[in-house]
Amino acid sequence: MTQEIRTITIGAGQAHPRRSQKHTRRRVRLNGWTVAKYAALTVAGVLLFRAGAAYALTERGYKAIGGEVFALFLPVFYYTISATVRDYITEIKSIFREEKGHEKTC
After folding, report:
1. Which residues, at least 6 apart from 55, have a Cβ–Cβ distance to it below 8 Å?
2. CB within 8 A of 72, min separation 6: which ones?
3. CA distance linking residue 51 with residue 63, whole number of Å
4. Residue 56, burial from CB neighbour count under 10 angstroms (0-12, 13-18, 19+)
5. Is the Cβ–Cβ distance between 72 and 46 less than 8 Å?
6. 3, 17, 20, 52: which is deepest, by most CB within 10 A?
């Protein structure tokens, strides 16, 4: 039996290694109004939480955290609901465009 020996030359005809992700910087442009809107929602959530906690303390008679903690998630709720409504409206518009295009071909 004879064995065949193959040699590999590194760098000949091979692609250069890609730059790792930790060395690249991505710039993200933030809209000032969006930042202000979510900051206002965060402040409103904190204020609602504090008011709800004070009311719950008077009702319960002892300190505890209950459903009023969900006021802190106000920015998250706003984002998810607005994204869902935006996607739904986009989908409805695309359905109506398809129907109008279908009517023209018939």
Report:
1. 68
2. 45, 46, 49
3. 13
4. middle
5. yes
6. 52
Using DSSP, state whether 97 is helix, strand or coil.
helix
DSSP helix/strand/coil, 14: coil
- Map tokens 């505890």 to a residue: 64
Maximal CA-CA distance, the chain: 91
The one-letter code for the residue type at 1 is M
Helix axes 32-60, 74-105, angle to 10 degrees: 130
- List the structure tokens of 40: 């206002």
> What sign for the dihedral angle of Cα 46, 42, 77, 93?
positive
The verdict on pTM exceeding 0.70 is no
What's the length of the chain? 106
> Is residue 45 packed enough to be buried (19+ CB in 10 Å), middle (13-18) or exposed (0-12)?
buried
| 26-81 tens-digit pLDDT | 777 888 999 999 999 999 999 999 999 999 999 999 999 899 999 999 999 999 99
